[in-house]
């Protein structure tokens, strides 16, 4: 089991590095900027506090991130569900960059799968689904895990999370 865990860790790092490089190329920002665009792009109008909790940022860090996204014309603030909250939404430019980011993310990962046959890819998908489904995670942890997911390609999500309740 240790060898499998070690190999899985190496693959995980290779994937993370590829995703980060893709985000840097597309957005000229790494860190939590790509995840913020993806999460805000789900279209549910998260508040700054909801975004902060999903991304695991401090309040000041989240405010700086959102301010930069607004200054870059990627995000806009709108009235929230109640008078105290502000809802975050992507601008047209932000939505376009989000699409490019999600496509680039999948394109960065695909080369790691080409050495597998279609059958092996199916087996791997089933195993990954099983691993993710078995995770004991809170809804917030699930949102955090899915912060870079393209929810349009993930049918039968193994770790469904309600971004509305965060």
What topology emerges from the helices and strands here?
Blueprint: H1 2-27, H2 33-40, H3 48-55, H4 59-71, E1 75-79, E2 86-90, H5 92-109, H6 118-133, H7 139-145
Antiparallel strand pairs: 1-2
Task: Label this structure with key terms.
globular, 166 residues, two-stranded antiparallel sheet, 7 helices, Arc Repressor Mutant, subunit A
Commentary on this structure:
- By secondary structure, the protein is mainly alpha-helical.
- The protein has one domain (2-165): Winged helix-like DNA-binding domain superfamily/Winged helix DNA-binding domain (Arc Repressor Mutant, subunit A, Orthogonal Bundle).
- The protein has 7 helices and 2 strands, in the order ααααββααα.
- It has helices at residues 2-27, 33-40, 48-55, 59-71, 92-109, 118-133, 139-145; strands at 75-79, 86-90.
- A two-stranded antiparallel sheet has the order 1-2.
- Strand 1 and strand 2 (86-90) form a beta hairpin.
- Helix 1 (2-27) runs antiparallel to helix 5 (92-109) and helix 3 (48-55) packs across helix 4.
What can be said about this structure in brief?
It is built from 7 helices and 2 strands, in the order ααααββααα.
Structural class by helix and strand composition: mainly alpha
Uncertain segments are none
What's the helix count? Answer: 7
Shape: globular
Rg, alpha carbons: 17 Å
**What's the level 1 CATH class?**
Mainly Alpha
Characterize the largest beta sheet: strand count, sense, and whether it forms a barrel. Answer: 2 strands, antiparallel
Main sheet strand line-up: 1-2
Mean pLDDT: 90
Count of the domains = 1
Going by CATH, the homologous superfamily would be Winged helix-like DNA-binding domain superfamily/Winged helix DNA-binding domain
Q: SSE order in H/E notation?
A: HHHHEEHHH
Tell me the fraction of residues in β-strands, as a range: 5-15%
Helix proportion: 55-70%
